[in-house]
Specification:
163 residues; mainly alpha; 7 helices; 0% strand
């Protein structure tokens, strides 16, 4: 008998549950707003960033758009500071029993293959999961991408369950 992921999440009816859900919803809204404001929900802007040949070649030389590098760099800096601050300030999280770290810390073939597949998909479509979800209500293309992404996730989950 398998248990659902929610059974392990300790989502008992309590003020902590409301706090967790409120915090998750707020963080998602801030993340989505940042993606929209930074332009990461615009596939042409993303493709302009990923196409480094546009620096000197192509039909429009010099149209490479480096602005998303600053967006990603800023996000990495904020994340590093937040992790360092959190580890110094508290031993346990407010809305959970413990911090959760990845169980595997090695680079293996599934990780490399997944990263390559992600990169190819991002380069072809101009969307990755976060920006696609943030833009799904704003664009038919993003909605189609999100639906296809969810179908792909279900197929992958059923494939992994069989093995």
């Amino acid at each position: 008998m398998s248990t659902s992921p929610l059974a392990n999440a300790n989502l008992s009816p309590s003020p902590h549950r409301a706090g967790r859900l409120g915090l998750a919803f707020s963080a998602g809204l801030v993340f989505a707003a940042g993606l929209v404001l930074s332009g990461m929900t615009q596939p042409l802007k993303v493709l302009g960033f990923l196409d480094i040949t546009a620096v000197t070649q192509g039909p429009f030389p010099g149209l490479w758009d480096p602005t998303l590098a600053f967006v990603m760099g800023g996000a990495v800096c904020v994340t590093l500071l937040a992790f360092a601050w959190t580890q110094r300030m508290t031993q346990t999280p407010v809305f959970a029993n413990a911090f959760h770290a990845p169980a595997v810390s090695q680079i293996d073939w599934p990780l490399v293959g997944g990263a390559a597949l992600f990169g190819v998909g991002w380069g072809l479509a101009g969307y990755c999961p976060g920006p696609a979800l943030a833009a799904a209500l704003l664009s038919v293309d993003a909605l189609i991408f999100t639906a296809a992404m969810l179908v792909g996730m279900l197929i992958c989950k059923s494939f992994l369950r069989q093995n």
